[in-house]
Amino acid sequence: MKKNITTKNIDAVLKFLPYFEDDKNHFYDYHDFEKVQKKDGYVLMCPYYIYSKEVITFIETLYNENIVFPFDWGEWQEEAIRYFNNPDLIKSADTLTLRKLLTLHVRKDRFFDGHLALVIDSGHLISILKRLKELRSKIKNK
Prior knowledge:
- By secondary structure, this protein is of the alpha+beta class.
- Helices cover 51% and strands 13% of the residues.
- Helix 1 packs antiparallel against helix 7 and helix 5 packs antiparallel against helix 7.
- The protein starts with 6 loop residues before the first helix and ends in a 5-residue tail after the last helix.
């Protein structure tokens, strides 16, 4: 079940658009394979990402503002790939589609570390947020 969202919810998310638009910002750190010394020898650690405080706050905001919602995002991945590979599709996406994309990207990052970094680096996240801003400008305050 997806909850309706309000302009207040959208506005809270859109506060992050300038942050993501500024390419001088540092969004994450990438750590390559590394050996970690343990009591009984070494353990090889797989590569991993650590997101900035602002990115973590953005993710929390998506949840707190009901932008992220439960749906079978795994079944919807092919549709999301269409939007990722063809940025012009974002220009006509509705609010529900944008919420699905944001939900998929945030949830997928929990299973595939670095997915959100790819979405940020590609400009896809900015496209989603800009479209959300465009749709928000057409909605009266609720």
